[in-house]
Amino acid sequence: MIIDAWAQQPNPTFAAQPWLATLLRWTGQEDGISTSDEDTLGAMDRAGVDLALMAAWCGPQGMLVDNDEVAALVARHPDRLRGVATADLRDPVAAVREVRRAVTELGFVAVRVVPWLWDLPPNDRRYYPLYVACVELGVPLCTQIGHTGPLCRSEPGRPIPYLDDVLLDLPELVVVGGHVGYPWIDEVLSLATKYPNLYVDTSAYVVHRLPAPLVDYMRGRGRDRVLFGTNWPMLSPSRALARLDDLGLDDEARALFLGGNAERVFGLAAAA
């Protein structure tokens, strides 16, 4: 099984965000990005991706892709997609209620907040109500680590001290750090070694461009801690996986990376 741990299906509001232009230039998509069910499922089929986790998005100006949009998308393709919720940090009480609704009523399997979009590192007090809600609901908190593709500050994505503080404060919180964590890969691996509930996903990277220390970690003691992801539609699964053999993973490590770790971390067997 192949599971994409980070994807989204943009709507016109998301596609019109000014910060997206630089990211599209990086990925050679200046003419626009895919926004249809057919594009998403077709990209999955071409790479043999069985299941994708589709994220809602919220920023300081409000919802970009709301939870109900994602729920409708998942309802159209329940055998291929799962939902990842978001919430508005500006109203913590409403945010907690929305996360609870998304998980208990809509069946979402995780919560994602993107720190660079808020320009708030993950140890900011405004995140903590959501962290507690994730622990109570038994779902992972997905975040972004490392530098940003859009022209926004990268500092909120630095793992130490920000994510280090969170993992110390909330040892029961399961965290999936997306986008690898470059250029702070040594900080990422040090935290993954220190905290058993920290995972990394490879979204936004083709696998043959992954940092060498992360690949070494995937081959050895970190084989159960790294998840495949794309950041679709900014990166297609076919492009991301084109040189998978270059990683030199044994059969067990390869299966865990492609889907086994995501299935376990997100409770996807139970969700199915």
Overview of this protein structure:
The chain has 272 residues and is of the alpha/beta class. The chain has one domain (3-271): TIM Barrel (Alpha-Beta Barrel), CATH 3.20.20. The chain has helices spanning 12-15, 20-26, 37-47, 67-76, 92-104, 115-118, 128-137, 159-169, 185-194, 212-219, 237-241, 251-265, 268-271, and strands at residues 3-7, 51-55, 57-59, 62-65, 81-85, 110-112, 141-144, 175-178, 198-201, 226-227.
What's the CATH first level? Alpha Beta
CATH architecture: Alpha-Beta Barrel
- State the share of residues found in helices, binned by percent: 40-55%
Unreliable stretches? none
Strand count, sense and barrel status of the largest sheet are: 8 strands, parallel
Number of strands: 10
The fold-level CATH name is TIM Barrel
For CATH, the homologous superfamily is named as Metal-dependent hydrolases
Structural class of the secondary structure composition? alpha/beta
The geometry reads as: globular
Beta content: 5-15%
How many structural domains does the protein architecture include? 1
